[in-house]
Amino acid sequence: MNTNDSKGIWKVIGASSAGTLIEWYDFYIFGSLATVIASQFFPKTNPTAALLSTLATFAAGFIVRPFGALVFGRLGDIIGRKYTFLLTLIIMGGSTFAIGLVPGYETIGFAAPIIVLLLRLLQGLALGGEYGGAATYVAEHSPENKRGFYTSWIQTTATLGLFVSLGVILITRHSLDTDAAKSIAKFNDWGWRIPFLVSIILVIVSIYIRMKMKESPLFAKLKTEGKTSVNPLKESFAHKTNLKMVLLALFGATMGQGVVWYTGQFYAQSFIENVCKVDFDQSRTILIWSILFATPFFVVFGGLSDKIGRKWIMLVGMLLAIFTYIPLFGNLLSTTDIKTKTEITEKKQIDSSITTIAKTNDALKKTVIKTFYTDGMQMTETRTDTLFAQAGKKEAKPDIKISKLISDADYWYMVLLVFVMVLYVTMVYGPIAAFLVELFPTKIRYTSMSLPYHIGNGVFGGLTPFIATLLTTIYTDNKLVGLNYPIIVAAICLVIGTLYISNRIDKNVND
To answer: Any transmembrane segments, and where (predicted)?
Structure first.
């Protein structure tokens, strides 16, 4: 590759990655703000049901991703890669901006969650069309001996999009007032909308960059020769050989990759916040540090796959996840378990206050109990009881919230544990774009690789936080029961991948 070619490929990677990163950012701020959104768009009478409803809305965006893959994949194989992922970027940016404008449940009732659900579905459709285009575009510009290395930069965008979304949320949360408590209160009230609204600026910049991009050279050649597919859907799924490749890609690679991705990055954060009860900021910065340390390994494993093949790197990542998830999550739990701590009883603080509920004679009694431990951990329990003025009226169930501020030693130990999980993500995810591109011919590549990717990653993976959280609410005695879902799915994928996936690198993608 000469200097001009080298500059050209980095320009292609930069333009593709910027747009894809922004789409992932748009997609993930919803999940990163699940607990806040639950209180804004759903009735507050049952916080657990509200959180599950929010996670279900979050999951809906994943479920429609395969449909987006079909719609936009077909467009990409007919009109070209460039204009198709310009369109997905506009739909994604518009939907995200609109979520920031939707009035809350207290203003418009059930219309609020319905509108949010519809916008979430549009986000899912757009993302379904984005990734396949970006990965295909970069791969079709890459030399054969560096395809894994160059496409792995696209693979970093999903994790970096999550990283940026967490960073913007934390910065906004602490910038709304000089008083930290007031700033957090403002964020929970209206400030959560800001990360959604600023997205429109990022999208406009990305559209400008992408407008300057040229069409993929392989697709342009096909178009000049009049060899583009007339019906990519039919050629992808009605042709027996192609359909077999689609099914192998799904059940032998992307299904396991999806659950490892969402367990290591999303369920880990949800578990630390909602099961371990770690403080909002700490639960997010633990993930931020872990992602920061692990992200370079996407490129390491992508580059390694050019030398030893894609298959075994991905399958070893799944194998490690299957056998170590239970001890890794068990360690997160035991690190924050107060049974393993020694309380400093003389430092315990209990404060109570009573406030009248507006337009009623009832009142709310708020009790805040702060408990300190010898290792530096501080636990805050906030209990809110409703005091009814009417004699004999049944007392409502108290609302109890627990938040643990863990010590520095425990904090960095948890960063290490989550780093290991994200490392597995880099193993299964780093080489997969090159793997998928090499499976399918140019004229139906966008369609064929998008569908298995988005079913595996979007549906099997995207449902992980919802199903895992649901399992923990059903089997309350076992806080690790939610891990059964990703472990079983990854194990099935590992067996199929080991038996049927080839480790051979297909150097010629000009077919």
So the answer is: 21-42, 48-71, 83-102, 108-128, 149-170, 190-209, 246-266, 286-305, 312-333, 411-437, 458-476, 482-501
